[in-house]
Amino acid sequence: MVQGHSVPPEEIRSESVTDEVIASYAEKGYTLDFAEEVMRYDLSRTHPQVKVPFEVSYLNWAPERVHAFFTVYNASFRERPGFPDWSEAEWVDWTSSDPAFRSDLSVLAVVQGQAVGFVTNADEGQHGYIIQVGVHPNWRGQGLGAALTTYALQKWQEKGKEAVILDVNVNNPGAMRLYQQLGFVVIRRRGKFSRRVG
């Protein structure tokens, strides 16, 4: 090792994190750094109706709205553990550069002219994929996250998809409860392991 330079840790991603997998990697010196639940919603069921105590407009992703999307994203997730602190360009690239991204199904929630939440989506073949749902902290606790999620479910159902998939960090129990209340079920856990080398 060159003095003054550290060697980056070895990383392994697993699509199926169980107690046995964690123990197996631990024996090799790996620790679980990140884990998220993969959740599924069956679109053959009737999705719940969500009411919010104000009128919401849903505006599609468009170049002139990208900054508003990013502003709400930044406010929504800044206090979360592991927040990447991306620039607007980095977040927009991460969100929309994949050919599967659906700008027509990704919307900004606006109340009284103010951007207060968003949902972004991607097309994954037989199912829709919710990339992110974010609600500005000043507007939480009023059902907006549930309204945005059910909006996405309705749109994917109209597109003829079988199911909707999303990922939620295991350290975000509030979001987990919301999705379970709406009818999502956990289908697996995935994560990232790392160990120091050198």
UniProtKB/TrEMBL annotation:
Recorded GO molecular functions are: acyltransferase activity, transferring groups other than amino-acyl groups
Q: Which InterPro entries match?
A: Acyl_CoA_acyltransferase (IPR016181), Bact_Acetyltransf (IPR050832), GNAT_dom (IPR000182)
Provide the N-acetyltransferase domain boundaries: 56-198
Q: Does the record's keyword annotation contain Repressor? A: no
Query: Which key words are in the record?
Result: Acyltransferase, Transferase
Q: Which Pfam families match?
A: Acetyltransf_1
On whether Plastid is a keyword of this UniProt record, the answer is no
| PROSITE patterns, sorted | GNAT
Q: Which SUPFAM superfamilies match?
A: Acyl-CoA N-acyltransferases (Nat) (SSF55729)
Q: What is this protein called?
A: N-acetyltransferase domain-containing protein
Which species? Answer: Ktedonospora formicarum
